[in-house]
């Protein structure tokens, strides 16, 4: 460790550190590359290079650099802390927890390590331990608004709504301009903001001292507050501003998902699947609930997880991560894009991929129930891949009226992903692509996917629940009709809604905003007029 301590006085590394403090990444990188060429085992320089990679979003590169630093200096605590953060940001919370446990064994009172461990535990279902860790941090550091907010998130997840609201209010007391916590309150869907709340949010928006992140969160929260107050024009104005700010921060190209769907349609005909029949891993364990966000997937998950044979988990990122990796593999001596690369996978590889998925998701399973749910909605783009690697898995498509579904997405700020949702035209295009992909699968694999229309579930709950359970292959259980009594943890935006009996509350909310939805209607085209039917696939792929 002496070399690491000495690096704090090394003029070359001090210069690189100063450049990083100024966020002058090119200068810092030039200095560090020269140092590592001269001294390739300089662990302090390696760690600083990892920080540059992290700032650029190249977390895989950052992880490799940090692991190299720890290989050279296993006691380098700062590098291990950085590695835990990088693992967390790569959605690898279990490994992040393992690194944090090593750090906490030497420094058990470190609030930063406990806070990150609590966040990581929240991603793998360790909610009670996460709550205890947040409480221990807040006992010694009560002036931390973001920790109060994170504490509120996990309390919401386990159904402690009153405690969650109290934690969010503690955060607001300490940071009235913290937009994310105002949105967190709005996102409960049950909180009615007071006039004083609205005044505080408006004052924060007029302040110069808030970030763009705070600003768009405040717009979304004010949109919800004014919608509840029946000020539709004012509400839509804030939703529009919040979405515009968020969209400007993202690099989203609607053509990419459209291209993926067209390529899947060209590949996935009946002969393609017939030639790979019964390949993959035969395990029947997973139940995939997919479709558009805000289409009733959490309701379906809550109904199914009320059955004694089915465990609910959460929105799992594993299928998308595996698909991304496949798209970067070299096959036939060249890199083949996804989904075209699926044609090159042997029966053995398909079986290995199915087994890999089951192993990757095992950490999410907390009971001995034989079946479990993966509720990642965006998995619709990988339905064909899912069938190839897990031919006995169940696949459920949650579908909702295009205007109701898309406008619900437009009102929602998502913590991660869903970049399509911040523009009405992008939303319509994405919904069309989703319908097209599911039509391709329906044509190639008739009956493979079970479709649940949200409106039918509301109007004929018992009949739809019985159909759903028949498809999954489990006997009817009355507990599935009392899903709102299920006390399982729910992480999605619908967490409080599915803890109440089913109702029509959200079905027509979009109608009050119809005067502003013309761009969405135009983008949806015949998908809107045909609902619940489907226009010809050829038109959808245009």
Quickly name the level 1 CATH class of the domain at 254-540: Alpha Beta
Mean pLDDT: 92
CATH superfamily of the domain at 254-540: P-loop containing nucleotide triphosphate hydrolases
Report the portion of residues in β strands. Answer: 5-15%
Q: How does this model look, in words?
A:
- The protein is mostly helical and 542 residues long.
- The chain has a domain at 254-540: 3-Layer(aba) Sandwich (Rossmann fold), CATH 3.40.50.
- 58% of the residues lie in helices and 6% in strands.
- The chain is built from 28 helices and 7 strands.
- The chain has helices spanning 2-7, 11-21, 25-38, 43-55, 59-72, 77-89, 93-106, 111-123, 127-140, 145-157, 161-174, 179-186, 195-206, 212-228, 232-248, 254-267, 270-274, 297-305, 318-327, 347-360, 383-389, 402-410, 424-444, 454-459, 461-472, 518-524, 526-530, 537-540; strands spanning 286-291, 310-314, 330-331, 334-335, 371-374, 394-399, 449-453.
- Strands 2-5-1-6-7 form a 5-stranded parallel beta sheet, sandwiched between helices. Strands 3-4 form a two-stranded antiparallel sheet.
- Strand 3 and strand 4 form a beta hairpin.
- Helix 4 packs antiparallel against helix 5 and helix 12 (179-186) packs parallel to helix 14 (212-228).
- The longest helix has 21 residues, at 424-444.
- The model has no long low-confidence stretch (mean pLDDT 92).
């Amino acid at each position: 460790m002496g070399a690491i301590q000495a690096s704090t006085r090394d003029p070359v590394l001090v210069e690189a550190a100063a450049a990083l403090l100024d966020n002058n990444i090119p200068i810092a990188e030039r200095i560090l590359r020269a140092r590592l060429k001269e001294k390739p085992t300089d662990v302090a320089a390696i760690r600083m290079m990892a920080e540059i990679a992290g700032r650029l979003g190249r977390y895989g590169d950052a992880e490799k650099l940090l692991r190299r630093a720890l290989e050279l200096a296993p006691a380098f605590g700062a590098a291990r802390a950085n590695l835990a953060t990088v693992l967390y940001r790569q959605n690898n919370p279990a490994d992040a927890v393992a690194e944090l446990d090593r750090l906490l064994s030497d420094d058990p009172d470190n609030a930063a390590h406990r806070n990150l461990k609590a966040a990581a535990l929240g991603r793998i279902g360790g909610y009670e331990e996460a709550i205890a860790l947040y409480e221990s941090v807040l006992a010694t550091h009560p002036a931390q608004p973001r920790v109060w907010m994170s504490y509120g998130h996990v309390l919401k997840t386990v159904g402690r709504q009153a405690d969650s609201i109290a934690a969010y209010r503690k955060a607001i007391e300490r940071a009235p301009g913290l937009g994310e916590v105002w949105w967190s309150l709005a996102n409960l869907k049950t909180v009615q903001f007071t006039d004083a709340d609205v005044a505080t949010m408006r004052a924060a928006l007029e302040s110069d001292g808030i970030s763009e992140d705070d600003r768009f969160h405040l717009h979304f929260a004010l949109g919800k507050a004014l919608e509840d107050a029946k000020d539709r024009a004012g509400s839509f104005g804030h939703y529009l501003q919040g979405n515009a700010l968020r969209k400007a921060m993202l690099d989203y190209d609607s053509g990419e998902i459209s291209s993926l769907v067209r390529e899947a349609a060209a590949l996935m005909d009946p002969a393609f699947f017939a030639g790979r029949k019964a390949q993959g891993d035969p395990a029947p364990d997973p139940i995939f609930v997919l479709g558009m966000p805000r289409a009733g997937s959490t309701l379906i998950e809550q109904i199914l997880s009320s059955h004694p044979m089915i465990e609910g988990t959460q929105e799992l990122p594993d299928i998308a991560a595996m698909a991304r990796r496949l798209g970067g593999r070299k096959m036939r001596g060249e890199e083949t894009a996804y989904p075209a690369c699926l044609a090159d996978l042997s029966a053995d590889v398909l079986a290995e991929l199915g087994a890999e998925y089951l192993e990757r998701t095992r950490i999410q399973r907390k009971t001995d129930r034989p079946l479990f749910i993966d509720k990642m909605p965006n998995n619709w783009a990988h339905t064909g891949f899912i069938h190839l690697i897990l031919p006995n898995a169940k696949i459920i498509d949650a579908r909702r009226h295009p205007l109701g579904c898309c406008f619900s997405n437009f009102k929602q700020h998502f913590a991660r992903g869903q970049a399509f949702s911040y523009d009405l035209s992008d939303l319509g295009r994405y919904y069309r692509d989703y319908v097209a992909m599911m039509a391709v699968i329906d044509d190639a694999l008739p009956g493979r996917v079970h479709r649940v229309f949200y409106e039918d579930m509301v109007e004929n709950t018992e009949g739809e629940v019985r159909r759903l359970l028949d498809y999954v292959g489990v006997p009817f259980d009355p507990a599935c009709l009392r899903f709102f009594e299920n006390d399982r943890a729910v992480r999605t935006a619908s967490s409080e809604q599915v803890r109440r009996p089913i109702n029509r509350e959200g079905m027509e909310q979009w109608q009050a905003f119809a005067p502003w939805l013309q761009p969405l209607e135009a983008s949806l085209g015949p998908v809107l007029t045909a609902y619940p039917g489907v226009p010809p696939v050829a038109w959808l792929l245009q």
